[in-house]
């Protein structure tokens, strides 16, 4: 009985996932393991990636690293963390670019490339597929 | 510094026009080659971006034109049944990032203008110095952030509507100023506060051979943001001068009439009155100020925006109060929305030159001057309200289709924001607009 119920919930969950478009990638926000930053709130992470915050709470400059447009990690990060679809994110950055107030974060191809950049810069912050977390990075926020 | 291999090339870009052309060609080639919108040329980070809107509008009012900006000579209704000039535009922007502190922006935009052409004009050209991540100063031609979305008002893709509500955004129809602006941003906890101040001036040609000039343009605004919510307060003050053949002829007429009568015994008081009216209403260095309050929420599902503003005018311009409120709800790629907007102007009650007791020819001349003055005061005192409903469809990445229906109600003695009003126009009528646009960015 219990087992049946569990299967039922799984099916409902699966259906909902399919209904919303795709099974979401599980992403986490990370910094270099050498960074002094240990933990951030969701709003703090999102504000850094949306260009609203230029520093970590400890005062150090924050350098966000995006993943390329169309990658599942990027879509998952912005929908789950910021509640923004790819189109909303595009509109957000268009507003900032066309007011001369800035440019979106530099984007790299995937989670592995993100980790490479984080290793070079202790001020950088990125998001990667949870499955790719290793000793070179530190998770500062997860859903 | 000279040992750095990149620097000599960077400076050569400014040696002359020919090398600038070479660099531009190199840049364009680099952009195509990389397939991206960013390039590193001689150590300077360039990025190229663009925006555009293709739109058509239909107006139910055949006796007047609906226009998208104060500076368009004609639009939908009288001149065209369907007008593409109201909303269509194209813009290109190059950002140059010289180093961590210095950057520059040049933006060129083409849209329907006062001369009935779509010729490109320089929208922005400024140099930015970033003192720290929180403080920056820009010098040159910069965007004028008078209202909440006026700084990206040309970029339809960033807006929920086909165009910003004209009732409110017409309070000051300028997109840029020549001068200096400074931004100071700071955070406490998860709140971001941005203070922006600017000082400058702007001169623009108007339809019909006129010129509008805003000088001593001082603007300050404070924006408080928390997550996806924002609250904004703004104040601006300026001196406005408007010259065009019609206005100049009218006030010259008052002056001539006043001087003539001042020389005739018994009519000096009437003459002085005519001269005083010319001084009172001539739009020359006239103080104009606006205070605004705005709020917005752009969460995953909801888009809510509202602004309220009060303009304090002088000369022939009227004091005015304007506001709008918009609500939209995202359903997948579709965002249906509704908007209410209103503009109310306090037209000064002006009896003009008193004609009682004047000999007939003088009374007739005074009547014509009074009629002209009244028409000018009316033209400055637009009052209208509107209800709009529409939908935005984000049909692909970087492009959106919008359909919008507007119902404008013009006040009984006002032409609202309509222009080219024909004799057959019925004051106080309702006007129905239908607009379709495709907005894109790249």
Would you spell out the secondary-structure blueprint of this structure?
The complex is a heterodimer of chains A (143) and B (442).
Chain A: H1 2-19, E1 27-32, H2 42-49, E2 63-67, H3 72-82, H4 86-97, E3 106-108, H5 111-120, E4 124-129, E5 137-142
Chain B: H1 7-12, H2 17-34, E1 38-41, E2 44-59, E3 65-66, E4 76-77, E5 82-83, E6 89-97, E7 102-111, E8 120-132, E9 135-143, H3 166-169, E10 176-188, E11 191-206, E12 210-226, E13 229-243, H4 245-262, H5 268-281, E14 286-298, E15 302-312, E16 319-329, E17 334-346, H6 360-380, E18 384-396, E19 399-410, E20 430-441
Antiparallel strand pairs in B: 1-2, 2-5, 2-6, 2-20, 3-4, 6-7, 7-8, 8-9, 9-10, 10-11, 11-12, 12-13, 13-14, 14-15, 15-16, 16-17, 17-18, 18-19, 19-20
Termini Cα gap of chain A: 31 Å
Segments of chain A where pLDDT lies below 50 for 5+ residues?
A: 10-22
H/E topology pattern of chain A: HEHEHHEHEE
Biggest interface, chains and residue tallies: A-B, 28 and 42 residues
Number of helices of chain B: 6
Mean pLDDT of chain B: 88
Mean pLDDT reading of chain A: 85
Give a short summary of the structure.
The complex is a heterodimer of chains A (143) and B (442). Chain A is of the alpha/beta class and 143 residues long.
Structural notes for this entry:
- The complex is a heterodimer of chains A (143) and B (442).
- Helix content of chain A is 41%, strand content 18%.
- Chain A has helices at 2-19, 42-49, 72-82, 86-97, 111-120, and strands at residues 27-32, 63-67, 106-108, 124-129, 137-142.
- Chain A is globular.
- Chain B is built from 6 helices and 20 strands.
- The longest helix of chain B has 21 residues, at 360-380.
Keywords:
heterodimer, A: 143 residues, alpha/beta, five-stranded mixed sheet, 5 helices, 18% strand, B: 442 residues, alpha+beta, 16-stranded antiparallel barrel, 6 helices, 48% strand
């Amino acid at each position: 009985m219990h087992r049946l119920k569990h299967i039922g919930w799984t099916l409902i969950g699966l259906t909902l996932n399919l209904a919303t478009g795709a099974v979401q990638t599980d992403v986490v926000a990370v910094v270099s393991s050498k960074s002094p930053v240990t933990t951030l709130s969701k709003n703090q992470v999102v504000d850094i990636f949306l260009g609203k915050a230029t520093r970590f709470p400890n005062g150090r400059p924050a350098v966000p690293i995006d993943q390329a447009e169309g990658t599942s990690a990027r879509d998952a990060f912005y929908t789950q963390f910021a509640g923004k679809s790819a189109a909303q994110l595009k509109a957000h950055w268009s507003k900032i670019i066309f007011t001369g107030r800035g440019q979106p974060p530099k984007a790299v191809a995937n989670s592995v490339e993100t980790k490479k950049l984080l290793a070079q810069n202790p001020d950088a912050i990125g998001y990667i597929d949870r499955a790719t977390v290793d000793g070179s990075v530190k998770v500062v926020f997860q859903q | 510094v000279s040992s750095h291999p990149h620097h000599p090339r960077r400076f050569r870009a400014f040696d002359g026009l020919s090398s600038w052309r070479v660099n531009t060609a190199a840049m364009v080639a680099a952009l195509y080659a990389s397939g991206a919108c960013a390039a590193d040329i001689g150590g300077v980070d360039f990025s190229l971006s663009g925006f555009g809107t293709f739109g058509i509008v239909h107006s139910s009012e055949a006796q007047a034109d609906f226009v998208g900006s104060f500076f368009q000579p004609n639009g939908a209704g009288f001149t065209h049944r369907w007008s593409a000039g109201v909303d269509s535009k194209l813009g290109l922007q190059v950002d140059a990032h010289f180093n961590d502190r210095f950057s520059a922006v040049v933006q060129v935009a083409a849209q329907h203008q006062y001369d009935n052409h779509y010729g490109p004009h320089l929208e922005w050209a400024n140099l930015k110095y970033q003192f720290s991540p929180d403080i920056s100063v820009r010098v040159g031609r910069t965007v004028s952030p008078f209202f909440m979305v006026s700084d990206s008002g040309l970029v339809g893709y960033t807006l929920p509507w086909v165009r910003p509500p004209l009732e409110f955004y017409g309070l000051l129809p300028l997109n840029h100023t020549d001068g200096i602006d400074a931004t100071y941003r700071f955070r406490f906890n998860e709140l971001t506060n941005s203070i922006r101040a600017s000082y400058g001036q702007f001169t623009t040609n108007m339809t019909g051979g006129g010129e509008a000039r805003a000088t001593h343009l001082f603007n300050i605004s404070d924006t408080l943001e928390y997550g996806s919510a924002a609250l904004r307060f703004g104040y601006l003050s300026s001196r406005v001068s408007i010259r065009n053949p019609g206005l100049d002829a009218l006030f010259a007429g008052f002056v001539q009439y006043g001087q003539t009568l001042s020389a005739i015994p018994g009519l000096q008081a009437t003459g002085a009155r005519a001269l005083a009216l010319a001084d009172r209403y001539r739009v020359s260095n006239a103080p104009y100020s606006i205070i605004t309050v705005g709020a917005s929420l752009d969460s995953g599902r909801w888009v809510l925006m509202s602004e309220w503003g009060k303009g304090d005018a002088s000369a022939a311009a009227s004091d005015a109060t304007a506001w709008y409120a918009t609500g939209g709800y995202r359903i997948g790629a579709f965002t249906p929305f509704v908007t209410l907007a209103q503009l109310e102007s306090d037209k000064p009650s002006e009896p003009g030159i008193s004609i009682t007791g004047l000999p007939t020819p003088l009374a007739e001349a005074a009547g014509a001057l009074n009629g002209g003055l009244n028409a000018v005061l009316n033209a400055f005192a637009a009052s209208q309200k509107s209800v709009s409903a529409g939908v935005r469809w984000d049909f692909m990445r970087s492009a959106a289709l919008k359909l919008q229906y507007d119902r404008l109600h013009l006040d009984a003695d006002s032409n609202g924001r309509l222009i080219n009003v024909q004799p057959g126009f019925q004051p106080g009528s309702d006007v129905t607009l239908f607009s379709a646009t495709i907005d894109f960015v790249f």
